[in-house]
Every structure is written in structure tokens, then in C-alpha cells.
Amino acid sequence: MSNSSREYFDQMENQIENNMHDIDRDAEANGWANAQPNANFDLVVAKDSLVPTVEGFIKTLNEGVDNGELKALEVFAVYKKLEKIFDEAKRKAEETAMDEARSYDKTFVIAGVEFTSKEGSKLLNYSEDFLIQELSEKLKQRQELIKVATASKEAIYDADGIEVTKVSLKPTKSSLSVKFKNK
After folding, report:
1. In sequence order, what are the beta bridge partners of 157?
2. By CB distance 3.0 to 4.6 Å, which of 55, 103, 116, 146 could disulfide with 107?
3. Final residue before a domain boundary, out of 74, 94, 116
4. What pLDDT is recorded for position 23?
5. Range list of β-strands (E), 40-169
6. Mean predicted confidence (pLDDT) in 29-36
7. Are 79 and 59 in contact (CB under 8 A)?
8. Domain shared by 41 and 85, yes or no
9. Is the dihedral of CA 75, 81, 83, 86 positive or negative?
10. Number of folded domains that form the chain
11. Do residues 12 and 5 lie in contact, with contact meaning Cβ atoms separated by under 8 Å?
12. Exposure pattern of 104-134 as b/e (b: 16+ CB <10 Å)?
């Protein structure tokens, strides 16, 4: 990480620390002064303090990239790390939240947030049908034949003597893979 980026992240860390003190003051003002980290977390505190802090942090990082104070790759890596942290946290909370939601009506509001429970759909298991299995296997074989034909400079013919169509390539979205070397 570059020196200017490190300094910028240090400033952001200080800003977050100051915002955490604001959260502590809010907690004290609302009678939550003795709250422990594992105690019940008030959604209102999260919505009114934590969410704006995170949004401000993201806005500041984006501005740092826009004005050249931060390297886009370093900020991208931070976002990927945060994404991983949030995805894991959401995954852990989801099952318990689903259980809790069952005690409410289908749509309900808690702390100004509307929740709607939706049951997963039931899909037909087509793979249990022998004809579907056979057609799926033929489809895979045909796709492999088309891959060979498209890559070949020569014409390729199928078992019935019909020329296999060479198809165009359809691009997918490019991406940037991120692997964290230090924890």
C-alpha cells in the first residue's frame, strides 16, 4: 500500500473511531450505556449511526480515488474484503432471522424497516425423467461438437453427415480477482 494511501486509511480509521464515540454517546443518551458487544443490538442505533458512518467511509474512499489521493486497486481490495465480511455476517444471521420472521405476519415492520417473508418455490425435478436425461446428454455432446467445429479451420460433420455450424463467441463481463495474502 502506498504511503499516501496508508495516510488516507489512517485518517479514515480516525474518522470511524470518532463516529464510534458518537455511537457510544447516542447509546448513553438512550440508556444503552451498559450495553455489551454481545448484547441485543438496537436496529435504530445501526440505522441512525452505523449505516451513515459506513456510507460516509465509502463516499470518502471514492472521493479519494476520484481526486487521486488513493489508488483504485487498493480501495477495490478494501471493498472486496468488506464484501466478504458482510456476506459472511449476513449468511450467519439469515437462518436465525428467517426463524424469527415466522413469528410475524407475512409482511411486518420493525424499527422502520419493512420485511416480507417469501417461501422458496418448488421446482419440478426434470432430471428424474429418462427422456430429459437423454436429451441433456445429447445437448452436451452437440455443444462439444460445436466447440470443436468453431475452433477448427476445416468443416466438421456430425454423425448424420450434416456440417456442424461454427458459432460466434459471446463475451462475458471482465472481472478482477482478489486474493488476500495476509489476514
Report:
1. 163
2. 116
3. 116
4. 53
5. 107-110, 113-116
6. 52
7. no
8. yes
9. negative
10. 2
11. no
12. eeeeeeeeeeeeeeeeeeeeeeeeeeeeeee
pLDDT for the residue 179 = 82
Facing residues of 109 across strands? Answer: 114
Q: How far apart are CA 51 and CA 53, in angstroms?
A: 5
Q: Are 72 and 82 in contact (CB under 8 A)?
A: no
Is there a contact between 165 and 149 (Cβ–Cβ < 8 Å)?
A: yes
**Among 42, 43, 49, 51, CA closest to 23:** 49
More confident residue, 24 or 50: 50
Q: Is residue 179 part of a domain?
A: no
Q: Are 12 and 61 in contact (CB under 8 A)?
A: yes
Separation CA 130–CA 138 (nearest Å): 12
Query: How many Å apart are CA 64 and CA 70, to the nearest integer?
Result: 5
Domain assignment of residue 175, yes or no: no
Judgement on whether residues 136 and 48 belong to the same structural domain of the protein? no
Q: What is the largest CA-CA distance in the chain?
A: 82
Indicate whether 80 and 10 sit together in one domain. yes
Is the distance from CB of 85 to CB of 93 less than 8 angstroms?
no
Paired with 110 in beta bridges are: 113
Those residues whose C-beta lies under 8 Å from the C-beta of residue 44, and which sit 6 or more positions away, are 111, 112
